[in-house]
Amino acid sequence: METLLTRELEEKYQHIWPNKTIIDYLKDASARFPDKVAIRDHRSEYTFANLAKTVDTMAMGLQQLGVGKGDVVSFQLPNWNEFVLLHFAVTRIGAISNPLIPIYRDKEISYMVKMADSKVFVIPDQFAGFDFPEMVERLRPNWPQLEHVLVVGERIPPGMKAFTTLLEVDATEEERAELDRIELHPNDVTELVFTSGTTGDPKGVMHTHNSLCVSTEYFIERLNITPEDVVFMASTFAHQTGFLYGARIQVHAGCTAIYQDIWNPVEFIRHIEQDGVSITMAATPYLYDAVHVEGIENRDLSSFRVFCTAGAPVPPALVREAAEKLPCRILAGWGQSENGLVTLTFLDDSVEKLTETSGAPCKGMELLVVHPDGTECPAGVEGDLWCRGPAMFVGYLKRLDYTREQHVGDWFKTGDRAVMDEDGYIRLAGRSSDIIRHQGREVPVTLLENLLHEHPDIAVAQVVAMPGRDESEGERACAFVSQKAGTTPFTIDKMREFLRGRGVSQQDWPERLEVVTDFPRTPSGKVQKYVLRERLQQEFKSSATHPHA
Fold first, then answer.
1. What global pTM score does this model have?
2. What's the mean pLDDT when you consider all of the chain?
């Protein structure tokens, strides 16, 4: 795959990269902790020794299917052990893993498998009531490059193979020797992951071994993770959060990882009690759900020491509530599919840093907050967020010209807005596309959302742009909120009175309120504001076309 990785970048980050592959970490962990449980889902578990042995067998099974170095293997699997086994086996032979999120359907999968030129596609027979082989049958004629479809489960349709075929390998000594002769370079592309859809435009993000491994090492270092820790992961493995800090972290740290394929906060609390879970990382909605598990104050959560939130800005009110109900540190981090883990708070940070920022950059990662003309913003001033460093991706698949357009020199324009304080910590202020410009000024979107989250009746609040009545007005603000169970109806008058009491100028009040039961979200849990904006725009267009309808 053609990338933007240059000799200059290699030399610049050589001293920060681990210069290892995930297979190096697997071999080390299996030697140090052979009998320790490495991974466990609701159906099976593997010790480190069994994990390494099974990966080798599956790697040879892939070779016998004709998969080799540089080939792409796509897999649309839930958070099952099979995902981890397959990813490591694909990596073992120098092929490229392309994880696909289980809730994706025909539109996304048709495009992604074709774009990736996938040689093999691995699916479950069914998950969450959906028939995956039936979807593949519909789409397969669009994928002339696809040679094999493997199915995890009992029902194997004609023309597809059982996933267990990869374990039924009668390898010769020469084939085993050939596996050991495969050389993996830390700067080879090893993962192709598609962006999650906050902008509605999926792009294939290419990562090397080094850019992935350094992100996981950042996480381990910042959280002081040791082999005694038990990591829980419910975020989908096909998103970078689940991929790096669920599917791969156990071999980096020699710890145990426990997986959940469908998020259930009650089961999460049970795993803390019964399995000694000490760490998890997830989006804000997961934290909200965990905090509001009934009777949580009576549960034994003594092993649980860190809940790390990532993705969208975390409302300070939720952080404070979680700190009161959970016996752990609530950390906040920020990163993207393109750059892994960029910032994270520290375990000993002040309450102010934990509740009002997304942390400081990890080693070697650099951030710049800039005005529209590209000049640097002073501390405390909001602007566009740029990023560079050793965890950065090496390009969008088949779109290198577009990738270059998203850079200024070696700075990547993240599309996020942020404020940097004098200590180098950032406070996210939403996406650049989320800015609302009303009558020539910017509406303080993040401030409004954080204040609304402090209202006792509000569970989630999002403020988005809706069309203005004329060009001079620009855009107007609409607040979407969901309410906590058992609360009285939230009205626009209540909202205005609340914001007035918090000192918000009337010109900044949202002009409209929409109370919803749920929000459109990406698979990682982030609210898709563009969907809300499009809903308002379509409504505006309809009313303009049919003013008396």
1. 0.83
2. 91
